[in-house]
Amino acid sequence: MSDFKRHNFKKLKIWQMAMDLSRITLDLTDTFPAYEKYGLKSQMDRCSISIPSNIAEGSSRTNKSFSHFLDISLGSSFELQTQLLLAAHRKYLADENCEIFENKIEEFQKATMVFQNTLNQ
Q1: 7 within some domain
Q2: Which of 40, 55, 94, 115 lies 20 to 30 Å from 76, alpha-carbon distance?
């Protein structure tokens, strides 16, 4: 159990970035048309909440297990990115806002992969 180290998830930069993505998503999807309540809005809300939640859940595990939870978190971030592009296609947000949000998602993805590499060393 030499690779076991609990991480304080609230202090992790990637968790903070993920929380920011979730807050932005929840605020954004509140502006979607009512008929998207059980469609794209629900899908985006759930996967954005999954991103920081998996980081938090994995933070108390071994590094190998934590890395697996980070994979799930990353997968949810790519899912969110895809849904964001679909929301932009439907004109639920302006192109420039989509680009800003997409950049935040990509920054999270890069930071998470860098962090994940430190766990696997």
Answers
A1: no
A2: 94
